[in-house]
Design goal:
By secondary structure, the protein is an alpha/beta fold. The protein contains 4 helices and 24 strands.
């Protein structure tokens, strides 16, 4: 059966350690999960536009909602997967090649999207959700699929599960991509609904300070300044009330830099990643200032940072004249090639 297009299932599901259950549905029974449970759908790793752009994230989970009239139990071997939309994000860059005549040079256009806030006004489901009319006992893990093309702010919270009955949580959060500075935790709480107060299991962003990798007072000052920039830049881009093109571009530059710093340094346990991050903090400090009072967010600043990040990935350092790192946004950058 279905209700407004949502399938209704009458069954008790038991997911084994090697099993997987995914989808959006109403279940008149219960779920006991020892494997992988996805409220929504896992996408293939090569998902691309336009399918990938249906998400306000590029993280391989198309979120959905599962409602249980019974109970939800997850054992120590079980995992529930969810997406988590950043505070601001950008779609992946796209490259187009055109040639007006057989002997004309190929024009390569690189589209660099802007950072923007998620579309919360639409009816698109923003994150995975489990609504339990009975009780919930959650052990094991909650795996958060992140969007590395975004910027997460400390304390961001999304409700993964509500329970009208008791809620017990011993699960821990893991994530799909490592970061020195962005992690996730699980917190319980309560919320008011039309049918009364329910217990909630919330996924919460737990940022580490950029200063946590610092090796001297200069780097500490730079790290704390960048911590503050995460919030201010995110708020400015969400408000979208810039006084000039220059201030808009500066905010976009800083958002890109912070996102790159969060996600492009590799394993958060790696000593080399921490050393590279500390080196970046040292390099972004304006010359002559032991305590960082202001920071340049222009193209030169961004190129300097991107050089470090590109070298960390083992790639060739981009030619600054390529016009990607510090140029305008939502425009095509043209490069002639033969």
């Amino acid at each position: 059966h279905s209700s407004y297009g949502v399938p209704i299932v009458r069954a008790d599901f038991t997911v084994g350690a090697d099993g997987k259950l995914e989808g959006s549905f109403i279940n008149e029974g219960s779920i006991n999960n020892s494997g992988m449970f996805v409220p929504g759908y896992m996408l293939p790793g090569n998902a691309s536009s336009p399918l990938g752009n249906l998400l306000d994230n590029g993280n391989l989970v198309l979120p959905g909602e599962v409602e249980l009239q019974g109970d939800f139990t997850q054992t120590s071997t079980g995992t529930t997967a969810t997406n988590f939309v950043p505070s601001i994000f950008q779609y992946p860059r796209s490259i187009d090649q055109t040639q007006t005549d057989l002997f004309d040079p190929v024009q390569t256009s690189l589209y660099v999207p802007t950072f923007h806030a998620p579309d919360t006004a639409s009816n698109i489901v923003q994150h995975s959700m489990v609504v339990v009319d009975g009780s919930a006992d959650v052990a094991g893990t909650v795996k958060v699929y992140v969007n590395p093309n975004g910027l997460y702010t400390d304390g961001q919270s999304e409700t993964l599960l509500t329970s009208a009955g008791t809620l017990t949580n011993t699960a821990t959060a893991t994530q799909s991509q490592p970061s020195l500075f962005v992690g996730f935790g699980l917190e319980t709480g309560t919320a008011s609904t039309n049918s009364g107060t329910v217990n909630t299991l919330n996924v919460v962003v737990k940022r580490n300070s950029y200063a946590s990798v610092a090796t001297n007072s200069t780097e500490v000052a730079a790290g704390h300044a960048l911590d503050a920039a995460v919030v201010s830049v995110s708020n400015a881009i969400k408000a979208n009330k810039f006084s000039s093109v220059a201030s808009f571009n500066q905010a976009q530059d800083m958002a890109q830099f912070l996102s790159d710093l969060d996600w492009n340094l590799g394993d958060e346990t790696s000593s080399s990643a921490k050393a590279k991050a500390a080196s970046i903090l040292q390099d972004v400090t304006p010359s002559g200032y032991a305590n960082l009072a202001a920071i340049d967010t222009g193209a030169g600043f961004r190129n300097q940072i991107m050089r470090h990040l590109t070298e960390q990935r083992g790639a060739t350092v981009p030619d600054p004249s390529f016009g990607v790192w510090g140029q305008g946004y939502e425009v095509s950058q043209n490069i002639n090639s033969h």
